[in-house]
From TrEMBL:
GO biological process: DNA-templated transcription
GO MF annotations, alphabetized: sequence-specific DNA binding
Cross-referenced PANTHER family: DNA-BINDING PROTEIN-LIKE PROTEIN, DOG1 DOMAIN-CONTAINING PROTEIN
Lineage: Eukaryota, Viridiplantae, Streptophyta, Embryophyta, Tracheophyta
DOG1 domain ranges (all copies): 53-275
Protein known as: OLC1v1023257C2
């Protein structure tokens, strides 16, 4: 479906990020429409805010379902890839999965620009998911724990082969250079994560200013929005940089583990909420 010209013009006028491809997904169109008709905080109306929540919830549920399909495709891909065609197929699936994550953060940024408090409340998430949130999403350093865990499990399962000099090129077969780069990237991410946490703390320290009606509440929401944007940028860039330093096979295994964790936590959260509602 091609986006109507007037919608594209509206998106450009409001400085919305461009779509991933020449066509726009329906969730992107829905949220663009809401941004056209919904005033930024604090002029947000209750009914329109609820529409925005429901729109993103539909997008998120569809996005998770597509992530599940991508995880299945990655699982079914030939590993190790034996032919050039296998390599191309695996690389294509990895790129497709990365584009899927990019689309999520693109659409989420539209919601944040409209009403940043909505993404912090995250009504589309389960209570368990929200308990694990760091600034409206997963903590970037979680990705490194996932890499180390997967590498350790795979290494232990094939230690006899490794001692015999047999290498299979999976996550359990990371080279010393790869381990060094992962460690360096982890240190960089920890520093950035701490810096963003400090920014949020400074914003929260100014909570008493909300009692003064002369304070510009909208400006404060914009500051909070910039903090959330930095957090999401760090989340996405962490995945991108990790995938770049891995081989296609290793990247596929990392993305499978990440998707399995995200989908698994949501499943546990849904069950927990059903039994405690």
């Amino acid at each position: 479906m091609h986006a109507p010209p007037n919608l594209l013009e509206t998106a450009a006028a409001r400085k919305l990020p461009p779509p991933l491809h020449s066509t726009l997904s329906l969730p992107y169109i829905y949220i663009c429409i809401y941004m056209t008709h919904i005033s930024p905080f604090p002029l947000q109306k209750g009914k329109k805010r609820n529409k925005l929540k429901m729109s993103f919830q539909r997008f998120y549920e569809g996005w998770l379902e597509q992530l599940r399909h991508l995880m299945i495709q990655l699982n079914q891909s030939p590993r190790p890839p034996l032919t050039d065609e296998d390599h191309q197929q695996l690389q294509s699936l990895v790129q497709k999965t990365m584009s899927h994550y990019t689309e999520y953060y693109r659409v989420k940024s539209l919601v944040a620009k409209t009403d940043v408090l909505v993404i912090f409340a995250a009504p589309w998430s389960t209570t368990m998911e929200r308990s694990l949130h760091w600034i409206a999403g997963w903590r970037p350093t979680t990705a490194f724990h996932l890499i180390y865990t997967e590498a350790s499990i795979r290494f232990e399962s094939q230690i006899i082969d490794i001692l015999r000099g047999l290498r299979n090129g999976d996550l359990g077969d990371l080279s010393p250079a790869q381990f060094r780069r992962v460690s360096e990237l982890q240190c960089e991410t920890v520093r950035e994560e701490n810096a963003i946490t400090d920014e949020l703390s400074q914003w929260q320290d100014g909570a008493s200013d909300f009692q003064d009606m002369r304070e510009d509440v909208e400006e404060k929401m914009q500051v909070l929005g910039r903090v959330a944007e930095k957090a999401d940028d760090l989340r996405l860039q962490t995945i991108v940089k990790l995938v770049e330093l891995l081989t296609p096979r290793q990247a596929a295994e990392f993305l499978i583990a990440a998707a399995h964790l995200q989908i698994g936590v949501r499943g546990w959260g849904v069950d927990f909420d059903l039994h405690h509602s």
